[in-house]
Design brief:
15 helices, flat, mainly alpha
Length: 329
C-alpha cells in the first residue's frame, strides 16, 4: 500500500501527430458544415423576404398595362408557379451557382455578378491596403507612446473615425478634393485616381477599429515577462515591439481584420452608391429598387458567403499564429 502511495504519477501521454491531424480535420469539417448551414438559412430567408417587397411585374410593365399583359409576363418569368416549387428550383441551382435569370436584364445572374465582382474586389482590396498601412503604424505608435500626446492624438482620431458615417465622409471628400481642389474625380471607374476617394472612404472606420484594438493588445503584451527580458538584453523599443510583441498581440487583431474584410465588402454598398462605383453594392441597390428577385438573392448570398469564408479562414489561421491553439486541437 505504501508503494502505491509513494509511486510517481504517470505523465499524461502527448497527443500523437496523427490524432492532432484527425482532430484538426474534424474541426475543419465541423466549421464547413456550420458554414453551409448558415448559407442555407441565408438563402431561405432571402428567398421569402424579397417576395414581400411587392410584385416586380408592376415595375416591368407600364402603368396602363392590362391584367392579361401582367399574367403573360408573370408566366414568362415563372412567377406564376407555386412558391414552394420556385424555392426548390432555387435551392437546386445553388450547388451549380445557377441563380436563374435576372428579371430586368434578362441575363444569367451569375454572368452579371461576374461582371460586377472585379470592381468590388478592387475597391475592397484597396481599402484593406489603406487600412493596414495606416492602422498598424498608428496602433504601434500609440502603444509605444502610451499616455503621451501622440497616443491622445491617435485615440482622438480613432474616436472620430468610429463615430463618422462613411457616406458622410465620402461626401466631404468629394467636396474637398473634387469640387474645391479639383485634384481627384468625384465618381467613375477605371483609373487609380477614381479609386482613391472611395477606398479612403471605405477604410476610415476599419482604420479606427484596427488601430484601437492593436494599441490595446500591444499594451497588454508589453507588460509581460518576456518583453521585460528582451528589454534587459538591450534591445531597442522598436525591435522589442516588432520582434517580440507584435506577433503575440496579433491574434485578436487578425480576428478583427478578418471581420473587417467582410465589412469592407458589405459596406461597399453605400460607398459604391456615393461614388457611382460599378460594383456588387451598386448592383444590389439597383436590384432591390427593381424588385429583381434572383439578383437580390444572389447578391445577398455573395455577401453572406464572404463573411462565412473569411471567418473560417481566420479561425484556421489561429493554429499558425498561436502554437497553444495548435496543440489544443
Amino acid at each position: 500500500m505504501s508503494d502505491l502511495l509513494t509511486a510517481p504519477t504517470a505523465a499524461p501521454a502527448e497527443k500523437k501527430p496523427g490524432a492532432r491531424r484527425a482532430r484538426l480535420l474534424y474541426t475543419v469539417l465541423k466549421r464547413l458544415g456550420t458554414a453551409l448551414l448558415v448559407l442555407l438559412c441565408t438563402a431561405t430567408v432571402s428567398f421569402f423576404l424579397v417576395r414581400l417587397s411587392g410584385d416586380p411585374v408592376k415595375i416591368l410593365l407600364p402603368p396602363d398595362a392590362t391584367a392579361q399583359q401582367e399574367s403573360v409576363l408573370r408566366a414568362s418569368l415563372g412567377l406564376d408557379r407555386p412558391l414552394f416549387t420556385q424555392y426548390v428550383d432555387f435551392l437546386w441551382g445553388l450547388p451549380r451557382l445557377d441563380f436563374g435569370n435576372s428579371l430586368v436584364y434578362n441575363q444569367p445572374v451569375s454572368e452579371i455578378l461576374a461582371d460586377r465582382l472585379p470592381a468590388t474586389l478592387e475597391l475592397a482590396a484597396a481599402a484593406l491596403a489603406v487600412t493596414l498601412a495606416i492602422a498598424v503604424p498608428a496602433g504601434i505608435l500609440a502603444a509605444m507612446r502610451r499616455g503621451r500626446g501622440t497616443d491622445r492624438t491617435v485615440m482622438t482620431s480613432v474616436l472620430i473615425g468610429q463615430s463618422t458615417p462613411p457616406f458622410w465622409v465620402g461626401i466631404l471628400l468629394i467636396l474637398t478634393f473634387a469640387v474645391w481642389l479639383h485634384a481627384l474625380p468625384a465618381s467613375g471607374y477605371g483609373s487609380f485616381a477614381n479609386l482613391v476617394l472611395p477606398a479612403v472612404t471605405l477604410a476610415i472606420y476599419s482604420i479606427a477599429v484596427v488601430a484601437r484594438l492593436l494599441r490595446s493588445s500591444l499594451i497588454d503584451v508589453l507588460s509581460c515577462d518576456h518583453i521585460r527580458s528582451a528589454r534587459a538584453k538591450g534591445f531597442g523599443p522598436l525591435k522589442v515591439v516588432l520582434s517580440h510583441g507584435l506577433r503575440n498581440a496579433s491574434l485578436p487583431v487578425v480576428t478583427v481584420v478578418g471581420l473587417e474584410v467582410g465589412n469592407l465588402l458589405g459596406g461597399a454598398i453605400l460607398t459604391e452608391r456615393v461614388f457611382s462605383w460599378p460594383g456588387v453594392g451598386q448592383l444590389t441597390i439597383e436590384a432591390i429598387s427593381n424588385r429583381d428577385f434572383p439578383l437580390v438573392q444572389a447578391t445577398i448570398l455573395f455577401f453572406a458567403a464572404t463573411f462565412v469564408v473569411v471567418n473560417l479562414l481566420v479561425d484556421l489561421s489561429y493554429s499558425f499564429l498561436d502554437p497553444r491553439v495548435r496543440t489544443s486541437r
